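To close the section, here is one more complete example, presented without commentary so you can practise reading it yourself. The ligand is nicotinamide-adenine-dinucleotide.
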Amino acid sequence: PDIERLGVHDSVESVFPPSELADSLSDLPVEVAVIGDDEIDSCDAVVTLEHRDAFLELAWIHSIQAGVDRFPFDDLEERGVLLTNSTGIHDRWVGETVASYLLAFARRLHEHVANQQERRWEQPAWDDGFTLPGTTACVVGTGTLGSGVAEVLGSLGVRITGVRRSGDPVEGFAEVYASEDLEDAVADADFVIVTLPLTEATRHLFDADVFGAMADDAYLVNVGRGPVVDEDALIDALEADGLAGAALDVFETEPLPAESPLWEMDEVIVTPHCAAFTEDYYRAIGDLVRENVERFAEGEAATNRVV
Ligand code: NAD
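Output:
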């Protein structure tokens, strides 16, 4: 596409200040401006968190997230709108978040923080704490997030297994299962970590059967997308002590509704879809946008193209 004016849509505000990104791109040979909904038609391209129907009139949309399940692929294709995403940047950030969940469960940090809120001096039972070396984490989805999680957890002595559609080996994974063997893959794991995108094939992939296949003392971590997990089935499994606990960054409904039982469960860590938040986020987005603007100027194909 021929880009003259690139808007940074103000919906990115919840992840970083839009002006930081716009300023960092000010040397590009295209005009870059922070825009609201009323200025979309002044642009031919946009960098955004959320989708707006008015984007269907543009030539190019760049999503600041890796997950693009909220965008209407068919409409974009029909209107000839290019959609690119931000996969490839979240590996280390999300990997460290997942490591912090696992360390919290192992070293009981979530329990201590809850006690501190109540000014309560209470040591854990002698056999509540454990350490990570010798545990196994099964990472379901071996893309950018999965690889980053494997790298950080591997450095903490966790044995890493994985699940991908083909079942072919992946560097950093001791064993890789094919998607149809998901229940076998999770059966041996102390931690099951969901790093999948939301697609028709992954919606509610984690259901009562999968939780039943997991060990009663295993933990579930979801940093992919909420609807990949059947949340009611997860709550049932947690309430029935079919799982030890869960760390969840993404939910079927976001923000997580106040009435959700997940908020009050002792062995559940809730984070508000921020596993990838870092002060460097806008810089990594800037690099991706810059690369594509330069590619378009050279007549080359887009990187990270989705539609
Ligand atoms: P990616 O494209 O690098 O990796 C996704 C992987 O999932 C790929 O390897 C793909 O082959 C695999 N996959 C897709 N469908 C599958 C299936 N049915 N069975 C098995 N494997 C399947 O993307 P990524 O950057 O790793 O991000 C993955 C997802 O994580 C995103 O789509 C997004 O929804 C989510 N995400 C969440 C956060 C967060 O803040 N919590 C941050 C980044 C990404």
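Once you have examined the tokens, check your reading against these statements. The first strand starts at residue 5 and ends at 9. The chain has a mean pLDDT of 98.
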